[in-house]
Fold this sequence. Notes:
The structure holds two protein chains of two kinds.
Chain A: H1 2-19, H2 32-52, H3 58-76, H4 91-112, H5 126-148, H6 155-167, H7 171-179, H8 189-202, H9 209-221, H10 226-238, H11 242-255, H12 263-277, H13 300-307, H14 311-331, H15 336-349, H16 352-366, H17 374-384
Helix pairs in contact in A: 1-4, 2-3, 5-6, 6-7, 6-13, 6-14, 7-8, 8-9, 9-10, 10-11, 11-12, 14-15, 15-16, 16-17
Chain B: H1 2-30, H2 33-62, H3 69-74, H4 81-87, H5 92-113, H6 119-143, H7 167-196, H8 201-232, H9 243-268, H10 272-294, H11 301-306, H12 309-332, H13 347-378, H14 387-407, H15 418-442, H16 448-472, H17 479-488, H18 491-515, E1 518-524, E2 529-532, E3 535-546, E4 550-561, E5 564-569, E6 572-576, E7 581-585, E8 587-590, E9 594-601, H19 606-611, E10 614-622, H20 625-642
Antiparallel strand pairs in B: 1-10, 2-3, 3-4, 4-5, 4-6, 6-7, 8-9, 9-10
Amino acid sequence: xxxxxxxSALAVAAALxxxxxxxxxxxxxxxxxxxxxSILADQLxxxxxxxxxxxxxxxxxxxxxxxxxxxxxxxxxxxxxxxMDGIKSGQALLVVVALAVPATAGALxxxxxxxxxxxxxxxxxxxxxxxxVEIADLTERLLERLKNDPNGGPTEGWMLLAQTYMRMERxxxxxxxxxxxxxxxxxxxxxxxxYAEALxxxxxxxxxxxxxTVIARARQMDPANPxxxxxEAIALDQAGDxxxxxxxxxxxxxxxxxxxxxxxLFVAQANRIGDTLGRDVVRLTSxxxxxxxxxxxxxxxxxxxxxxxxxxxRDTFIRSMVDRLANRLESAPDDLDGWLRLADAYQVLGxxxxxxxxxxxxxxxAQTLPNDDPRRQTIREALTGPEQ
Amino acid sequence: xxxxxxxxxxxxxxxxxxxxxxxxVLGAARGNLLWMRSARASSIAQLVFIGIAFLALxxxxxxxxxxxANVVENSHSLKPMLYKVAGxxxxxxxxxxxxxxxxxxxxxxxxxxxxxxxxxxxxxxxSVQAWISTGFLxxxxxxxxPFERIFPPPLDGNDLNPLLQDVGLAMxxxxxxxxxxxxxxxxxxxxxxxxxxxxDAAWARRVRPWTLAAWMSLTAGIALGSWWAYxxxxxxxxxxxxxxxxxxxxxxxxxxxxLHSAIVTEKRDxxxxxxxxxxxxxxxxxxLGTFIxxxxxxTSVHAFAVDPERGLYILGLLGVSxxxxxxxYAWRAPAMEGGGLFAPISREAxxxxxxxxxxxxxxxxxxxxxxxxxxxxxxxxxxxxxxPFFNAAFIPMMLPLxxxxxxxxxxxxxRADLKGIFQRLRFxxxxxxxxxxxxxxxxxxxxxxxxLSVAIAxxxxxxxxxxxxxxxRLFEVPFADAxxxxxxxxxxxxxxxxxxxxLAVAMLGFIGSSAWKSEEIVFxxxxxxxxIAGFDVRFDGVERVQGPNYVADRGTLTVTRDGDPVTILYxxxxxxxxxxxxxxxxxxxxxxxxxxxxxLAEPAxxxxxxxxxxxxxxxxxxxxxxxxxxxxxxxxxxxxxxSDRRLRVGAPRRAITPAAQATPAE
Lengths: 388, 666
């Protein structure tokens, strides 16, 4: 609210500046001839003064006076300045301008600003930093425990560790953690696709032959694993087989019901590759249904892992999931449902401020949706009054 | 919240600038006084709102608000406070915000202080200023928004380039921009005069304080920049003919020509066309500089072509403003009535030579700066045009200019008696020649050009002093009388003397530190001794020290001369952890006679570092401080001239209340 108060004050100030001339002194127009004459007269006086001080000789002073007087004469021969309008005319235009300036500036701001986003000073974010240190600490302890486990540590434990490393952007560490379990009997296709993700991230997006092998294994175990298909498509694209990559993505999208969380990512990737091939753009609306109840984040595996944790570990885990989503959205901010999920998660965690920001991001994206889209309703309610 | 206030204030400023671009100039054309006078309020409003935006950004830097993308990119929570503040203008976006802030400050300055300017001229001038403002504000908002937000915010920032963590450099952009952008108001005055179709002595007098203020800031900015390069880069050089330096030097050269040309317009009603053209070209070069530095063209022509949005926008602005103003000049300038006639030997002719030589020198620098860019763009080969070209092309043009400078102030307006002047300057010429010979006798080695240059610099210094003593008739009349005459003399003529002498002093610095520099680059073990320029320097070793956001290797050098201790130098190599880069901190023993300059280069290899062996660079630069003393004299001279009350006698309304006027330096 305070922000809008300040905006209004600025807008009013701008409008006042624009109408200020109306209250100005109603002096006559300063004529340029009169101004020039007074300057030349001053020059004449200066010549006299210089002469009195003995800076110039009498002859020099005389010559200078003649020159200045000649200029004065030339000035008086100039045509009269044309008649000026009265001070009253044109007042209406100033009033119009005074209204137009704040209005247009407001419109410009609407396309640029993020009014719902708060300032977060470094000093205010002590908690966040402590939390990050705690997470790093917990991660270390988890790693120690898993390493010292005579049975090699539970698979869920290693996966939790890997996910935390991913969120901390320590991709090689994440890959190393998953590598401990990929040869076990209980390995799933999901674990393998996460392994592939970590390997690719560690190489800054390049699909290495190792990663390619892992992807193949994951697809073999579960041909329906969307993550594995996604990375296979990226691998194909990087290998120069863009057509196959595009076909693969389209085939998966055709089989989708539209409510899956991965659909948007697939559409974006398909369009990126399709663009280089000159193929038609895939529309999200042709796949995704309009009743977007925000789907929840963690997968079944994640939930299974979470079930075996202590309370503090579970909190950390949930936070790490949320942060991961936030990080992903930072790099791919055009994901409306993603922002809604993130906002929802923050709401659940009690972080209202961050939830509002995420809703704000969603609102910007939702502007292109039809007015009766339920998601718009959700956003409106969240932004205008969570108290009601 | 604060960044959003800045964003909104910026949007308001753009809209106000848009109104100011149209309304006052329309009022001037239609004779509507109300619309003309709206320029005053809107100029002030622009300054207020851009000021709010600037403060909002500064605040975000001070409190390390990492929801602002610009703060993330250019700051870090561990950075010392001074550099957090300086980070505001350290980035592309922030420096452009400073650019428009200074633009608005000059506009508001004319609106507030220019009460003696006729309404129509003021309205047109401020409208032209608003054209520039609209162009750059829209550039800022549309392509380089400084208030871009980031969510979720990263926990800490990416630091500022540690090379730029330096007091001299923190103050360098504001001063440089003050000069650069200050010429905008002179440009606006010139374009307004072209629209009106009249330039006269009164116009020149009104413009003069603004030209002086911009010129002084630019001089100070360039000098500070060169001082920074001297003690921070660790090479011991103070000017590299680097494109970034050149683009600030070109407006200075033409600005200097403009300053002198405007004097002729003010006092003799002549050189009108020259003055207007110089005003347009000086600011055009400022714009060109902004374009070259801000478009990424310098890094590589290729990089510019890949992401051309920003570069093309400025290029468009450049084309419109330079093309438009020169077009207007071509159309309207011939209509301006010519000024008084003058003989080939006269003050006017001297200043004409000044204009021509400075113009040609600017053209030379421009050629040397743009040629490599053209080559890369057209032919595709990267070439570099370095000091050899500039030294060979630029210096021979400057030396005759300095010779003429010695005569100039003796010349009287309209026609001058050259024989009389020669007679007065006989001794000065002999002394200057002798000083060149004396330096030749005292030193060994050194190019002939250096001895000639010394003689010319001494000539300028003595001729300038001789002119001053002639003017106050020192040694001709009793001393008290002479002092009385000195007090009665307008401050602007003292300013001229000081500035001309300053150039002579700076020249001695240029020559001394380049022609007679001694340099030793040695690979040393602790205990090693190096002899340089009469000093004995002993290397005592390197120790590791901890700074606020860096660790440093600090060397200890004991300096003696003929066995007597002189000083101990501590050059450092700093490593900035967050930015992962290192800088050199030279240690300098500064005296008027010259600087003993030591810097520590990296150890040759890890093994040698362990054994304590380092590469040292030791220089002795004679007279190098004369450069900055001379630059300070130039700025002070400009200040004296600016404070001259004669600039204000044109204000009839102000003359009634002389007590209200600030009279500094009295």
